[in-house]
């Protein structure tokens, strides 16, 4: 699909068309929030600014967050300048490798998805009050929305010319968001060194990213940017929910900030939605 097919013509000016938000991830995330809201006011704390602000701040304050993020961002910038040259070199060498075959990356990505689902189910059975499931679904939903939005804004054509959804890689962002969720969730669930086994999820995630390049559906910068996006989103959502020590969090308690939301009420013998603000 050519980029012309994804642009609108208004008075001679071509405007990019933003994609429709992926409905399924958003609906599942909202459903998960509604279910969790029945206990401990978890739903209302999703609308507090404090947990989300602190979750984002963690990405720039902790070396284990900002060092890999800064490295990936720097690599993306450098690779953007060399992607085209690398593609031309491969074409000159008649490099075919795994060109066009994306099935293996698809299978590994799907395996990561089912592993995350399975771990969430195990966590529920272990009595975590569906916290792992809630965090996993919200990571998936936010990462999907952001990835599709960036793809539409960038409009970069794939190396094989199939469409203009190359940057960033959705497979890489999904794989690394899932790997980050599994790594942190498993590590927090076990105090023993066995918890570190969750970080092995980055191995299949790296395979997914590498295979998308070798199959010529992405440039190297696409998959590095996708990995960065997935890593950042997963950590930010995870930190917003679990917090750190006395920092406000969705699972830990109220932040004391101004909160807002909607609640059902009765008005003139009719069911209505009431907008509320709490201090």
Structural overview:
The structure is a single chain. This protein has ten helices and four strands, in the order ββααααααααααββ. The protein has 279 residues and is mostly helical. The protein has one domain. A two-stranded antiparallel ribbon has the order 1-2. A two-stranded antiparallel sheet has the order 3-4. A hairpin with a 2-residue loop joins strand 3 and strand 4. The longest helix is centred in the middle third of the chain and has 24 residues, at 131-154. The protein is globular, with a radius of gyration of 21 Å. Mean pLDDT is 78; it is low at 1-21, 36-40, 91-95 and 254-260.
- Give the helix proportion (percent range): 55-70%
Oligomer: single chain
User: How do the strands line up in the largest sheet?
Assistant: 1-2
Strand content: 5-15%
Layout of strands and helices, then pairs:
Blueprint: E1 7-10, E2 13-16, H1 23-36, H2 42-45, H3 49-61, H4 63-80, H5 83-92, H6 103-125, H7 131-154, H8 170-189, H9 202-214, H10 220-242, E3 259-267, E4 270-278
Antiparallel strand pairs: 1-2, 3-4
Helix pairs in contact: 1-7, 3-4, 3-10, 4-10, 6-7, 6-8, 6-9, 7-8, 7-10, 8-9, 8-10, 9-10
């Amino acid at each position: 699909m050519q980029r012309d097919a994804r642009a609108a013509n208004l008075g001679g000016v071509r405007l990019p068309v933003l994609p429709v938000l992926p409905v399924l991830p958003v609906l599942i995330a909202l459903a998960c929030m509604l279910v969790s809201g029945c206990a401990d006011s978890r739903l209302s704390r999703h609308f507090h600014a404090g947990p989300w602000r602190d979750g984002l701040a963690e990405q720039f304050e902790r070396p284990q967050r900002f060092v890999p993020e800064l490295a990936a961002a720097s690599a993306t910038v450098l690779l953007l300048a060399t992607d085209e040259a690398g593609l031309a070199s491969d074409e000159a060498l008649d490099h075919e490798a795994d060109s066009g075959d994306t099935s293996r990356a698809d299978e590994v990505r799907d395996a990561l998805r089912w592993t995350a689902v399975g771990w969430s189910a195990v966590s529920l059975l272990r009595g975590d009050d569906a916290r792992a499931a809630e965090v996993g679904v919200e990571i998936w939903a936010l990462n999907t929305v952001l990835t599709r939005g960036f793809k539409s804004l960038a409009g970069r054509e794939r190396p094989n010319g199939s469409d203009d959804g190359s940057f960033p890689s959705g497979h890489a962002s999904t794989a690394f968001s899932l790997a980050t969720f599994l790594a942190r969730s498993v590590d927090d669930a076990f105090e023993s060194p066995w918890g570190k086994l969750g970080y092995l999820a980055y191995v299949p995630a790296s395979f997914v990213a590498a295979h998308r390049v070798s199959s010529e559906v992405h440039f190297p910068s696409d998959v590095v940017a996708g990995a960065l996006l997935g890593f950042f989103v997963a950590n930010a959502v995870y930190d917003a929910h679990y917090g750190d020590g006395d920092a406000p969090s969705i699972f830990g308690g109220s932040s004391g900030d101004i909160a807002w939301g909607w609640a059902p009420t009765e008005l003139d013998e009719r069911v209505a939605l009431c907008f509320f603000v709490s201090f």
